[in-house]
Structure formats: C-alpha cells, structure tokens
Amino acid sequence: VADAMRQANTCLPGKVVSYDAATQTATIQPLLKTRQPDGREEALPPLSGVPVVFPRGGGGAITMPMREGDGVMLTFSQRSLDEWKGKGGEQTPDDPRMLDMSDAIATPGMVDAEAGGGPSDCIELRLGGAKVQIFEDKVLIVADTVRFEGEVEIDGNVKIWGDAEATGNFNSEEPL
To answer: Which of 55, 39, 43 lies closest to 12 in space, CA to CA?
Structure first.
C-alpha cells in the first residue's frame, strides 16, 4: 500500500522552465523531492508538454504571460490525458495509468512565501509597473499610458490631474 501511495500523484508546486504560448503548454520543474525507502532524496525530472490552465468560459478568458521561474500548481489527472491532448473533447483513455506524473496540468500562480501577496481590499491585475485595481466603489488604473479604443462612456464627474488633450468635436448638449 505504501509503495502504491508513493507512486500516486495528486498535486505539487512547480516552476516554469519554458512556455509555448501558441500551444499553451510548458515544461515544468516539480519543486518537491521524493524520499526513497532507503532515505535517499531524489529531485523529480522536469515535465514537458504540460497543459497550462487559465480561467475561461462563456467566450471570455484571462491569460497572462508565463516566464521562466514562474510558480504553478501541478495537478495530476485521474486518468491518462494522451487521447484528450491529441483529439480534444470527450475521450476514452487507451492507457490504464492513474495519477501519473506524465498527466500533469499546470495552474499559474503558485508562489512561495518570499513572493509576497497582493492587496486585501480589491481585485488587482498587474504586469510590470501597470496595474488595474477594482474596489467595491471605484476602479484605479495606474500606467504610463492608458488608451481606450472605441466609444467610452462616463456617467459621473471627471477629475484630471495633469495635462489633457482632445481632438474631434465636443457637443455639451448631447450625453457622451
């Protein structure tokens, strides 16, 4: 039973070795070693071709760049993913393996204690020095440049700190 449990994988922290945005797959290095019955510690090998999962549904998606060293949570499928990876959709696995390292899925965001956290009073999206914070009663955008394309509607007062430029026509009798 102990040997079977040692070979069953559920989840592990890992870090990105490389990422292919076109296929949304990565090579991931698991970050926990295994201890053998004789006491030896062994690093787990990097896992290649690991699907990276981002939140998506209803036609929308949240994706992010993945860089070498980024943390992920590896979860291991209950059944072989080979048929699903090759064909997509509903499949019947041809391989009987279960909870195997070769059937890993990576979810971005797993960080260690040194990485620090985020704010506790808002949802924050950030990349480099740019960020968008969504509070219960306001949205804060911090960036060197903010560009809106298409129509922008503002229902409320507008405050501007700094210079402003405008082109086009302005009609004060029509709502924006």
So the answer is: 43
**Cα 172 from Cα 176, distance rounded (Å):** 9
- The rounded distance, in Å, linking the Cα atoms of 97 and 101 is 10
Neighbouring CB atoms inside 10 A of 95's CB total 13
pTM: 0.75
Q: How confident is the model at residue 128 (pLDDT cuts 50, 70, 90)?
A: confident
Q: Which amino acid is at 66?
A: M
Rounded CA separation 65/12 (Å): 21
Rounded Cα distance, 62 and 127, in Å: 13
Q: What is the chain's mean pLDDT, rounded?
A: 87
Copy the structure tokens of residue 138: 């306001």
